[in-house]
Amino acid sequence: MSSTLKGLVKSDVEYDGSNLRVAIVHARWNKVIIDALIAGAVAKLKERGVQDNNIVIESVPGSYELPLACSRMIAGAHVQAASNAPDLLGGLNFSGSFSPPKAPSRTATPAPAVAVATPNRPFDAVIAIGVLIKGATMHFEYICESVSHALMKVQLDTGVPVIFGVLTVLNDDQALERAGLGRGAEKGHNHGEDWGLAAVEMGSHVRRWSEGKFA
Ligand code: RBF
């Protein structure tokens, strides 16, 4: 079968992630597979230049919790960015919360001004990673349906790309193969890698589009 018939065609452009901030939120169900997918995503983020301190990883119990986590992390990063922004006097507030100015001490040696690498920008993309494996009851269908719709809603409501890193598979083997962990001779492809690349590409597009720049 032709390699271009199915699956993702590689982009001609190598998007630069060096100025992007990306969150990964993952479920803990089916953790072995989740870990491989996260590793694949992180490897591609770094390959595209996303810096370590601009990759934030959080976990939630299961896939059902992913949409709320994405939504709240996107909102929280805006609060964080605002509280770290330079104030009108040109100072920087690294504390994240207000504290009244202290009277200058007459004895203490003034602390040197230290450049603290504090995150000061919202997330450019969020990758939601989960592995849903069909069981004997209808749970799978309900969770797949609601999670996929809710993740789409989060990205449309916030304008921040939410990469759909949720495997919805019929059995363990299908999940393992999609994480590059296949038990047969064919190990499969780690889709986490595609999600890392998609996050950098969509983060770059949205930043450019928001500046009114188009190809
Ligand atoms: N969460 C997953 O991420 N993957 C699953 O395959 C999965 N299967 C579940 C099956 C059942 C019967 C139940 C009750 C929950 C399952 N969950 C799964 C957890 C779910 O996403 C969520 O964390 C819990 O329902 C708590 O809200």
Automatic annotation (TrEMBL):
Q: This protein's superkingdom?
A: Eukaryota
Catalytic activity from the UniProt record = (2S)-2-hydroxy-3-oxobutyl phosphate + 5-amino-6-(D-ribitylamino)uracil = 6,7-dimethyl-8-(1-D-ribityl)lumazine + phosphate + 2 H2O + H(+)
**Main EC class the enzyme belongs to:** transferase
Pathway this chain belongs to: Cofactor biosynthesis; riboflavin biosynthesis; riboflavin from 2-hydroxy-3-oxobutyl phosphate and 5-amino-6-(D-ribitylamino)uracil: step 1/2
A GO CC annotation recorded here is: mitochondrial intermembrane space
The catalytic activity of this protein is classed by the Enzyme Commission as: 2.5.1.78
Instruction: Describe the function of this protein.
Output: Catalyzes the formation of 6,7-dimethyl-8-ribityllumazine by condensation of 5-amino-6-(D-ribitylamino)uracil with 3,4-dihydroxy-2-butanone 4-phosphate. This is the penultimate step in the biosynthesis of riboflavin.
Q: What protein name is recorded for this chain?
A: 6,7-dimethyl-8-ribityllumazine synthase
Which organism encodes this protein? Gymnopilus junonius
